[in-house]
Design goal:
3-stranded mixed β-sheet; 25% helix
């Protein structure tokens, strides 16, 4: 595209490269950016870095995402703690019938009591297995799920309300830039499900001891309205929060296939980020002129309105010149 204005030789910020920009919406409703905010970018979760995720799961209704990363349990790893945390997580998951912990499981809001009474006879036999026996057969213990051998990352999809900026993923090809809008962004952080599981097991054991001494009485079911006292002394209604936590607990995980970045499936998906036929791509048309654009991005004054502003760096109005217009006939007014 030919410019209507000559480049200034004294310009301290010259244009060094120009690209044709294309917007691709083929994956706009399915593209989610997962950010591992606590991970060094030089150590990605990839197969080449021996850290390929083993499972990805999502609860689309409440917007929760979890990612399991396998850990090396053979080198520089405390096997005793791995067995202790792994056993707590295994038993708690059995009590929950595969349910989640922490926020991902709704913090147990509305859940039935978790106790060893729900375990099968086969699971009860595992109680006779000591930690010394598991340490002596560490590989077998890992195969049976007694060892904490993975790290779980989790995050929440922020729902759209029309106020967030629109982020895009950009890919270059020669002199073209192809942009695909992101549907959402999820910031993944380590989840300490093994600690939650150990705490649940301690509470369950204490409850069983109390029930053995003083059997619980049958109580009439009743509704409970939860409130929290704020710092300023006013009550905060927790009804909506309770509904969200209950929904997080009741919704089942949807497990997805995870493909490494260098797999053929990943490269096939990468190609979908490009506009297939650039010659037939629709041209973008601006719905506002320069003055209207500046008004839109300007901060309001004291009366809540914005004052029209001239384009920065020019005392004259700037006219948009169509490609079909003779450049020599364009003049400044």
């Amino acid at each position: 595209m030919t410019s209507a204005y000559e480049d200034d030789d004294d310009d301290d910020d010259p244009t060094v490269r120009e690209y044709d920009v294309f917007v691709n919406n083929d994956l706009a409703e399915r593209l989610i950016l997962l950010q591992a905010v606590n991970r060094d970018r030089r150590q990605p979760y990839t197969d080449a870095n021996h850290a390929k995720p083993s499972e990805l799961r999502i609860k689309p209704e409440v917007g929760l995402v979890e990612l399991d990363i396998p850990m090396n349990i053979w080198n520089n790893y405390d096997r005793e703690k791995a067995l202790r945390w792994g056993e707590a997580l295994r038993k708690s998951s059995a009590d929950k019938a595969g349910g989640s912990h922490g926020l991902m499981g709704g913090f147990g809001i509305g859940a039935g009591q978790s106790s060893a009474r729900r375990r099968t006879a086969g699971a009860a036999d595992d109680e006779d297995v000591t930690q010394e026996m598991l340490l002596a057969n560490y590989a077998e213990a890992d195969a049976k799920g007694h060892v904490l051998n993975k790290q779980t990352l989790g995050g929440q999809i922020v729902p759209k309300d029309g106020t967030q900026p629109i982020y895009m993923v950009g890919v270059f090809r020669q002199d073209q830039l192809h942009l695909t809008p992101l549907d959402s962004i999820v910031q993944l952080r380590p989840q300490f499900h093994h600690i939650d599981a150990a705490a649940e097991q301690e509470r369950a054991a204490g409850r069983l001891q109390r029930e053995a001494i003083d059997p619980p009485r049958q109580q009439e079911a009743r509704s409970v309205h939860m409130t929290v006292k704020a710092v300023d002394g006013e009550d905060m209604d927790m009804t909506e929060t309770t509904k969200l936590l209950r929904a997080a607990q009741e919704e089942k995980w949807r497990r997805l296939d995870y493909y490494d970045e260098n797999s053929q499936t990943a490269w096939d998906a990468y190609e979908k980020l490009f506009v297939a036929d650039t010659d037939k791509a629709s041209r973008l048309q601006s719905t506002m002129d320069n003055a209207a654009y500046l008004d839109a991005i300007s901060a309001p004054d004291g009366q809540g309105s914005t004052k029209p502003k001239k384009p920065v760096g020019s005392k004259s109005d700037v006219h948009v010149v169509d490609e079909s217009t003779d450049v020599e006939s364009a003049e400044e007014t």
